[in-house]
Amino acid sequence: VLGLLVWALIADTTYYLHAAYAWVLFVSIFFWILTVLFFVAYLLQLQLKFYMIPWPLVLMIFNAAATVLYVTAFVTCAAAVQPTSWRQWDYNRRAAAAFFACLVMITYGVSTFFSFRAWKGLGSNAATSQVTDRA
């Protein structure tokens, strides 16, 4: 939802006058579509059908890439906001887009952390923690 807000707010401005917003739109739309595809895949439990794919590793790489690219998109979006804009509603939407891009960046960063824990097996549940190796 936050990613949708980023690209919807940017798309509702005169983004074509500023080349920096093309990058922000690309990153936000690209990762929004991929996130929706991953969500639908997990909703339909496709990870069980394609068991040969290391899903925790794939999600960790996806979240890490999204975090890094959203850092660049956030910095670009925040730097391109000009408070002296002649169109006040563009300024408000661009500032809101920068705020939500920051939230999306933080969200992907937290998801990267939890994906890393899942990939390393650090987030085990009670059933798997009962099996221990005793030397």
From TrEMBL:
GO biological process entries: myelination
Membrane topology: Multi-pass membrane protein
Example of a GO MF term: structural constituent of myelin sheath
Cellular compartment(s): Apical cell membrane; Myelin membrane
Alphabetized InterPro entries for the sequence: MAL, Marvel, MARVEL-CKLF_proteins
Ranges that cross the membrane: 20-44, 56-81, 96-116
GO cellular component, one term: myelin sheath
Family: Belongs to the MAL family.
The protein's name: Plasmolipin
The encoding gene: Pllp
